[in-house]
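Issue 218. Parser rejects a valid record. Input:
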Amino acid sequence: MERKINKLANCHVEVVVNVDKDLWKKAQEKAFNNLAKNVSIPGFRPGKAPMHLIKGHVDQSRVFNDAVNGVLNPVYEDILKNEDIQPVARPTFDVTKLSEDELELKVVLVTRPEVNIGQYTGYTLGKEDPEVTEEDINKAIDELRSQNSTFIVKDDKAEMGDIVVIDFEGTINGVAFDGGKASNHELELGSKSFIPGFEEQLVGVSLGDEVDVKVKFPENYGSDEISGKDAVFHVVVHEVKRRVLPQLDDEFIKDLNLANVGNIDQLRENRRKQLVNTKMNTVRTNYINKLLEEIKKVSTFDIASEILDEEKVSRQKNLEDRLMKSGLGLDQYLELVKKSKEDLDAELLAEAKKGLESYLVMDKIAEKENISLTEEEVEFELAKLADQYQMTMDQIKSAIGQNMNGFTQNLLMQKIESFLFDNNN
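Output the parser choked on:
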């Protein structure tokens, strides 16, 4: 087949194809024969009438339409086989010439986004040093104690930090509403898991108390049935429990089962290192993000709109999945955050563009600097995970499963980030 290649803007390539005459003729014959099978002519069984009679009953435009559809795959496969083009989205086809003897198609393909990268080393943006104070360490140890705390039933009144086990039923103007009722619900006072004012009114209750808690739902809170409305919750207290923190002693430290930690000094050092690592990761992430924005300012990008739209749709799907887990629909979410669908689309498109540009920059740096992962590096990271979670290598690989490509891609991104972090200030 004769082909003419034209490179268009935004990573589009136009291929004008003069379809092979023999292929086009056979496609028409096949299309005609398929249509002829359903032609009924009085005195003949379907498809058995003489050809000259059948031709008068077959719409030529339908023959052309079916025949064109029949050659699209062979034409596309021929382009991929003979041209150095790597499409990343579905092509579009347009008929530019059409007759019984000739078919010319214009095929537009979307190719991989490109970046002409500018300076990416030698920047001076200022790196922060992560600071860990004694107060930070104390808070981290308190969190450990809280995570390992127990609860005991108390006979006196509930205080902030206590757990109350309650039945409750809410009404608005005396009428119950969906989702406003539960039994034997455990609520930690001060957790802010209920609407403002609810938990505070349970401070001071005791076993067996029945109280009416009066609250006002925030505006744009869930459905119109309850949003912005005054409500009364009738609450029955079944139990009040007090949190008991474990003593900070050698027995508690031993029960934590932390590697190389057997006393309070070693625990403090363990928490300090963990906090330094956590803060360093945050500092590093913020620095890399800031650096990428600087690199993008001196780089140019060529990205097809189809790719950005696909990424936008993917981000919206992820958002909807997260909202569904929280019991919200997209429309409810938009009401809560006071955004229109157009606002959300623009926001998601901007995020898609920013994320894709960052990825292209990282990918191009890996290409220019020959940054890649070795099998040994991947195995080493897997071994670290296996040790961390006390699993065998086979178990950790099985747990990662089909996400192994994502796992190795994240490792590669980390390696590129390390290059950027080490070669900029």
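Fixed in the parser; the record now loads. The CA atoms of residues 89 and 393 lie 37 Å apart.
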